[in-house]
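Following the same procedure, backbone shapes were mapped to integers, as reproduced here:
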Amino acid sequence: QVQLVESGGGLVQPGGSLILSCVTSGFTFSSYSISWYCQAPGKEREFVAAITRDGISATYTDSVNNRFTISRDNAKNTMYLQMNSLKPEDTAVYYCKARHISRPSDYYWGQGTQVTVSS
């Protein structure tokens, strides 16, 4: 059974930090590229960051570049999103996604974790 379980969300003040985790099971984690998306109220789900299966190459949407860091630990089947210098506009539900490197239609989503940035 495939599972992607996110944690680490919560309420944080502007300028604060959070670390999101996504623990996976039920598939060969190292064969999947992984990414984070977010969805704010009333908006569509948007790409935040992605990292290759080997953890070497990462890409970010412009609004989080130099503030967020995506990483993975293939030994623990876990992905992370370090979020620094948080802004109110970062408020959203954050989802992790795993997609097979050679079968794009083979992908999985986590259930989401709420991040709220507010004073």
The chain has no helices and eleven strands. The mean pLDDT is 96. The two ends are 40 Å apart (CA to CA). Residues 84 and 117 are 11 Å apart (CA to CA).
